[in-house]
Amino acid sequence: MFIQTESTPNPATLKFLPGQAVLEAGTADFPTADSSATSPLATRIFGVEGVRGVFFGTDFVTVTKADAVEWDHIKPAILGAIMEHFQSGQPVMTGENADAGHAEHVGPDEDIVRQIKQLLDTRVRPAVAQDGGDITFHGFDRGVVYLHMQGACAGCPSSTLTLKMGIENLLRHYIPEVTEVRPVADAM
């Protein structure tokens, strides 16, 4: 098994491509070791000292390290953990499967929210997945769109610029009711 790695815009996060499916659909975010109980793979990766977060896409794993740790010191152990897991035959997830993404929204703004989710799914999420992360809809209130940033996007130095200059401008252009986009620290 050969696992490729790619850098992401977030220097604390590295993208690992195992060359096979990680999840059938959706994403799974494990911001802490305590949140990884439903994933034998995430638990194994958190076993590497210095790992601060794990995120799964359909064909990739992103790992976020602690600031005090160098990639040169933990990357070989992470590669080993991913390789051991896929060779073990264990499932990536047990019990609860991957998250479909967007939060539900019912109410008077249902049509606007449907348009927001469609733009996120067709224009934003595919590009963000290339960088090892995901951005999902969390809420809409009085013109403000709240988005949850996961994987490489969470804590990325360029995430504010991406939100304000990219996503906010896109949503405001296509949906006049949108006035601002704000990040949500954690959707849980």
Output the number of helix runs: 4
Task: Please count the beta strands (DSSP E, at least 2 residues each).
Answer: 8
Taking Cα atoms only, what radius of gyration do you get, to the nearest Å? 17 Å
Helix/strand structural class: alpha+beta
Helix and strand string, N-terminal first?
A: EEEHEEHHEEHE
> Mean pLDDT score, rounded?
87
Name the shape in a single word.
Answer: elongated
Biggest sheet strand order reads 1-2-5-4-3
Largest sheet: 5 strands, antiparallel
What level of helicity do the residues show?
25-40%
**Roughly how many Å apart are the termini?**
34 Å
- The unreliable regions are none
| Strand portion | 15-25%
Family: Belongs to the NifU family.
Domain Scaffold protein Nfu/NifU N-terminal: 3-89
Protein name: NifU family protein
Pfam family, one: NifU
What can you see in these coordinates?
- This protein is an alpha+beta fold and 188 residues long.
- Helix content is 33%, strand content 24%.
- It is built from four helices and eight strands, in the order E-E-E-H-E-E-H-H-E-E-H-E.
- A five-stranded antiparallel sheet has the order 1-2-5-4-3, with helices on one face. Strands 6-7-8 form a three-stranded mixed sheet.
- Helix 1 packs antiparallel against helix 2.
Which helices and strands appear, and what pairs or packs with what?
Layout: E1 4-7, E2 13-17, E3 28-30, H1 40-46, E4 51-56, E5 61-65, H2 71-88, H3 110-130, E6 133-141, E7 144-151, H4 159-174, E8 180-184
Parallel strand pairs: 7-8
Antiparallel strand pairs: 1-2, 2-5, 3-4, 4-5, 6-7
Helix pairs in contact: 1-2
